[in-house]
Amino acid sequence: MSEIISLTILGGVDKDGTEEAIRSVDISRGEIVGIVGPTGSGKSTLIDDIEQLAQGDTPTGRTILVNGERPDANIRVDPRRKLVAQLSQKMHFLADMTVEEFLQMHARSRGKDAGLVTRVIELANTLTGEPIAPHHHLTALSGGQSRSLMTADIAVISDSPVVLIDEVENAGIKKQEALQLLAGEGKIVVVVTHDPVLALMSSRRIVIRNGGMIDIITTSSQEQDVCCRISEVDNWLMSLRETIRRGDIVEVIV
Amino acid sequence: MKLVVLAGTPGSGKTSVLLHTIKALIRNGKNPAVVKVDCLWTDDDQRFKKLEIPVHVGLAKDMCPDHFTIYNTEEMLSWADKEGSDVLLNETAGLCLRCAPYPDECLAVCVIDVTTGPNTPLKVGPLLTTADIVVMTKGDLVSQAEREVFRERVLEVNPGCNIVEANGLTGKGAFELAELIGCGPDAGSNMLLRYNPPLAICSLCTGENRVARKHHMGVLRNLDGFMEYKGE
């Protein structure tokens, strides 16, 4: 497949087996779409359906089309041809390998040059406080370090036309920078989030309840204004956090 | 009669994956039967019976469970035939990883747990390397990158296999596995094992329980890897 112009989610059923209210969602290149809903409502399940390009063969019965067509079976499984990169909530590494060995092997699985490894580590270190070194053991990385490393891995090694992000805000990394890094240019980005800044940065958000897509909300200009204002608050909080982490004194704001 | 031999390390999710796959097989119009082989005890038959299909348990007791599976294959096939089934799913106990209980004319499925880490495929041996299908389970517990690295390791040791990413909890992968089973081969009457079982017999195989080396005879391997035959 040469170029991904659009993804289509065809609705399936919710947790009770009832048809989802939303029957079809088209997402185009360059768009960021949010997925919102209470915990346990099925947001990650929707992400998983997209990741495996479900063809009515997952418990939700959803179908994912690429450029309006059913994708080739190989694209679903072969990492060298994979269209989707996923940053999941699961960030505890179980592989007993060094950062360098792991990234080299991942580059190989994706058919990429092992020389990209240095670039991944450099990029990861712009997102996290404590630097990661190539000889570090994966299993000993902190939550924030793991998340940064996976974010950079997706931007550099997995570099796929579709990027799925599951609750990046819980990771203790610079979330807006991470999102910009992942979104890149002309990608399709789907982000599961409880965070108002990230949710309102998206152009539309799919609302999930009881396992089903019940609504799609287009971000209004009023919401975009709100987004700008809360971004400022968010950045301020972030800088305070950094100040405290450095062991400095917080000065009074006038 | 199609024969599927499902092997894998304990706790890898063989039974859970199989339960979902049986449902998908039934939806595809198949009549599956299950033989569950275990060592000492199992209650998995109760889980299979809920699906209202023929279930048979085989307990190997003091025999090697893989050997037990191999020489009872014919009996299992004729049982499934009498039950009116067209697919026999044989879930093995799978313990020492040294035997691969796959005949040539079967669909050999190896279930392997991703959370055991990407070095595991290198350790599993013929159970994995001679399988037609490798089912990777518990992938939801690790990152996409780690799943892909694991997959790469599986392909290093078994380049020709089909890999199915499955989830025993949600049923992910069951549809795909059922499709592959539907295309699997029919069991023959002169089947051969794909891989030779371990060199035996040493005196432990015949009931010796003293530890000291002087009591042991037969084909023995020293700690340094050297092999010897001690006996008449």
Instruction: Assign the CATH superfamily of the largest domain in chain A.
Output: P-loop containing nucleotide triphosphate hydrolases
CATH topology of the largest domain in chain B: Rossmann fold
Question: Looking at the structure, what is the overall shape of chain A?
Answer: globular
CATH fold description of the largest domain in chain A: Rossmann fold
On the 0-100 scale, what is the average pLDDT of chain A? 88
In percent, how much strand structure appears in the residues of chain A?
A: 15-25%
Biggest pleated-sheet summary of chain A? 6 strands, mixed
> Within the largest sheet of chain B, what's the order of strands?
3-2-4-1-5-6-7
How many strand units of chain B? 9
Strand-pairing-aware structural class of chain B: alpha/beta
Task: Estimate the mean pLDDT confidence of chain B.
Answer: 90
CATH class of the largest domain in chain B: Alpha Beta
Quickly give the structural class of chain A.
Answer: alpha/beta
Q: Tell me what portion of residues of chain B adopts beta-strand conformation.
A: 15-25%
Tell me the domain tally of chain B: 2
Distance between the termini of chain A: 56 Å
* CATH class membership of the largest domain in chain A: Alpha Beta
Uncertain runs of chain B are none
